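Hi U.,

Before I forget, here's the chain from the pilot set. I'm dumping it here mostly so it's searchable later in email.
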Amino acid sequence: MGGVVELWVVMLLIAAAAFAPLGYFIYTFTKANAKPFGDIEPHGDSPSVVNDFAEKAIKYVQGLLGKK
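Structure:
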């Protein structure tokens, strides 16, 4: 019987670790008035921090690949 309890505890710990990111996302989503990632424009019509960072990262990688 001890093996069953041990297995149950291990499975409970694995499940808690697996669903922790989902719980954090839901917490952040409800905390920021349904805007979990801040004020970003998904269509790219207006400048945003996320789009600027992505463009800089892409240009950096293209620069590295172009030098070789």
